[in-house]
Design a protein that fits this description.
single chain, alpha+beta, 10 helices, 7 strands, 14% strand
Length: 311
């Protein structure tokens, strides 16, 4: 039993000596590895950065374009939030990244980048790994910034305008349809103000489709917004504020016009209600009367209340 214990102790000493010997050899080998020069490290970083520029560019380009497309279509139709649409855009970006990975690698290979000439042991050094990581980070950030350039060509407010119009449409539709019948007018339009772009826009106009946009100082609606007063015109073509180009585009002939500004709860003007071409009992176009002015003012107050509820 004593002999067995002695043998075990000797075996342990041998293993310890071997481990120390291998560690010493490893340290000696690492000390013998030549450190890369700054030029070689620069090439390491450069070779790591170039592929990541391609991947970063592809990732952001697909994510932004796909996310914006989803936001302005399914997002508006199904009530999906912008963040959810961005998540779907990221899914599309990941799929595109997997599908295009080989293409990016092949493109980088064809570039025939300068080789650093370092061995595997030199590349495994801490300083080499740091330069490689730094190059990859700089490359992916550069690629992402380049991919964001598509924002210069995208109407980023399109989805917000369409979503807001959809939210308001269910409320305003009833008012504008019944309002047109109440005034016995050919057309009724509700314009909302976009303060940042200085535009009046509407998706709610009798007999029209799509979003209508005009400058906030253009036409009768713009004049009404700027003055903050009711405008009642018997013959639009005799008023210099009337924009005749609109009739030329739509094919509609405007004669009598009644417009009233819409205020928010603080008294700030945020839109315009406009009625066109009032009809008399003989179905002939006539001018709007004083009673119509009172009625449209009441309608503007109702719209203010509805906007407060929706927002």
């Amino acid at each position: 039993m004593l002999s067995s214990a002695l043998r075990s102790k000797q075996l342990g000493r041998r293993l310890c000596i071997r481990l120390k010997s291998s560690e010493a050899v490893g340290r000696k080998r690492k000390e013998d590895i030549m450190l890369p020069t700054k030029e070689e490290l620069r090439i390491v970083a450069y070779r790591a950065a170039i592929p990541m520029v391609g991947f970063g560019f592809m990732d952001n380009l697909v994510m932004i374009t796909a996310g914006e497309a989803i936001d302005s279509t399914l997002g508006v139709a199904l009530g999906i939030s912008t963040m959810t649409a961005a998540g779907f855009g990221q899914c599309c970006s990941d799929v595109a990244g997997n599908l295009s990975g080989g293409t990016v690698d092949a493109a980088v290979t064809r570039m025939k980048l300068q080789h650093h000439g370092l061995s595997e042991d030199q590349l495994d050094l801490k300083v080499s790994r740091m330069y490689k990581l730094l190059g990859a980070c700089v490359g992916v950030v550069t690629g992402c910034l380049l991919g964001m350039s598509c924002l210069l060509f995208i109407d980023t407010d399109k989805a917000d305008r369409a979503r807001k119009a959809k939210e308001l449409q269910s409320i305003f539709d009833h008012i504008m349809t019944d309002g047109r019948a109440l005034f016995n007018a050919d057309r009724a339009t509700l314009f909302m103000l976009d303060e940042e772009k200085h535009e009046l826009w509407s998706q709610i106009a009798t007999g029209t489709k799509g979003i209508i946009k005009i400058r906030d100082d253009e036409g009768i609606a713009g004049a009404c917004l700027q003055s903050g007063e009711i405008i009642n015109i018997e013959n639009a073509y005799e008023d210099e504020r009337f924009n005749q180009k609109v009739d030329g585009v739509t094919g509609f002939t405007t004669k009598s016009v009644l417009a009233v500004p819409v205020k928010n709860e603080t008294g700030k003007f945020i839109g315009v209600i406009q009625m066109l071409n009032k009809k008399n009992a003989d179905d002939e176009v006539t001018s709007f009367g004083v009673d119509d002015e009172k009625l449209i003012s009441m309608m503007a107050n109702h719209v203010t209340s509805f906007i407060k509820i929706v927002q």
